[in-house]
């Protein structure tokens, strides 16, 4: 029965949207925290599980498709070849370094892939997108999301401080924030703390990282088909349907056929759907379980954060944004 669980997530998403209007925190982060608070402070009835699963998977994927409407290829390409190279390096090096470090730590492949995607691309949304491709266990998904929220939140004060420490100007600090910080919402918070110019550069660079979701998911899907499936019936798609939808939405935005009011409504719907999904995912974040069984995952998350900070710092030094 979908009703109770889905309704709970929809209400959680709506509350998060309203709270974000009065708090300097994104609706997505509020939703994850609300769901996690419920999970850790009060019992979650088993009857909610089917509806929560729909919210945290199907609604999430629709939200990711609509996220594509925020991306214009012309804006991304306008960053220049050097900055785009830093984006690709930040995602690629962090992703593969996370897989390698996770293997050394003895983590299962699905857990490694979830953390690698979340920390290199776009946080909880990338974790959830990867989950559909690798068929991870729910506790692995919850662990990865809990860690990306924890370390991404730490990046909000840390990234601007590091930018100032190494002597970056405002725009370079924005580039560093966008290339290193995990969630779009966390990038907005960190960039906004530095200044208007930093915020604009940070968000654009971060959205370029979000664009990497499609090719990375295609690569993961192809790998899982070749290495971890034995029959055609069980093989995951090379490109999940929602990733294809994300690409189409991005192309629609690039062509410019949708008026701004429609894009504004789509952005609101996207935020609501993602907040609803994040509330559902938050219901799976059990801190006691994470700290009891996720010690190696915690080490990997810390290592992935260090890697992406170092790559982003080096890249910003070598290819600073054009003034």
UniProtKB/TrEMBL annotation:
Cellular component GO terms held in the UniProt record: plasma membrane
Cellular location of this protein? Cell membrane
The residue stretches assigned to a coiled coil in this entry are none
Q: Which domain of life is it from?
A: Bacteria
Provide the primary localization.
membrane
Transmembrane parts of this sequence: 12-38, 83-101, 113-130, 142-168, 207-225, 237-259, 265-285, 297-319
Q: Which UniProt keywords apply?
A: Cell membrane, Membrane, Transmembrane, Transmembrane helix
InterPro entries the record matches? UPF0324_pro (IPR018383)
What membrane topology is given? Multi-pass membrane protein
Family classification: Belongs to the UPF0324 family.
- List the PANTHER family hit by this protein, alphabetically: INNER MEMBRANE PROTEIN YEIH-RELATED, UPF0324 INNER MEMBRANE PROTEIN YEIH
What's the protein name? Sulfate exporter family transporter
Query: From what organism does this protein derive?
Result: Glutamicibacter creatinolyticus
Q: Organism classification, top ranks?
A: Bacteria, Bacillati, Actinomycetota, Actinomycetes, Micrococcales
